[in-house]
Design goal:
mainly alpha, Arc Repressor Mutant, subunit A, 2 domains, 10 helices, 201 residues, Tetracycline Repressor, domain 2, 0% strand
Length: 201
């Protein structure tokens, strides 16, 4: 019942299961939480769960889709705003930090790393591709307005962003920082000051 592309109105029990699973996943990570725990906290039976979802993976996909949908709307709003590129980058950072504070280190590690479930990993990759295209448009628009160093190609900037994203998944890199918040701050600082047009210095 993955309706991420075509939102539907969920029943009260379905919503309770989604919100409960989200709360538990964000707090403890996905691997640790069982369907039984979700049902017990939501106050429903396993039969009710399976009437709404085919598996734990399906409810994980729905929650991941919600995360990406929110991020996509946020990015669209920022891109369409009259803020300068610098202000837009700062806004993106602020929102990312706010989201990070809602997630446990376990959830972030599973989400940013390689999920055990191949189906979930494939789904995340497909959503990443959609988000990649939005970010590429954002970068291209900033280049056209002269807010990004014109000597840097959009393809190179996107390649470097992806490379930094892969580093984010590396446990050795994460171990260099006290917490995820510090890692995100330095990630954005490195990217921002590396691509900023000299006219903004």
């Amino acid at each position: 019942m993955d309706n991420s592309q075509n939102p539907v109105k969920y029943s009260r029990k379905t919503l309770a299961l989604i919100e409960t699973a989200k709360e538990l996943f964000f707090r403890h990570g996905v691997r640790r939480i069982t369907i039984e725990e979700i049902c017990r906290k939501a106050g429903v039976s396993k039969m009710t769960f399976y009437r709404n979802f085919s598996s734990k993976s399906e409810i994980v996909r729905i929650i991941i889709a919600q995360i990406y949908d929110e991020a996509s709307v946020m990015l669209d709003d920022i891109m369409k705003s009259s803020m300068s590129f610098e202000e837009k980058i700062q806004k993106v950072l602020s929102v990312k930090l706010e989201y990070t504070r809602s997630y446990s280190p376990e959830f972030i590690e599973e989400f940013a790393g390689s999920p055990d479930n191949d189906e979930i990993a494939s789904y995340i990759n497909s959503l990443n591709e959609e988000y990649y295209n939005k970010v590429r448009d954002f970068i291209s628009a900033a280049k056209e307005s002269g807010e990004i160093n014109p000597e840097l190609s959009t393809d190179f900037i996107m390649y470097m962003m992806n490379a930094l994203g892969e580093m984010f998944k590396d446990s050795n890199v994460r171990s260099l920082f006290a917490d995820t918040e510090q890692l995100i701050r330095e990630f954005f600082s490195f990217f921002y000051y590396g691509v900023l047009s000299r006219k903004n210095e």
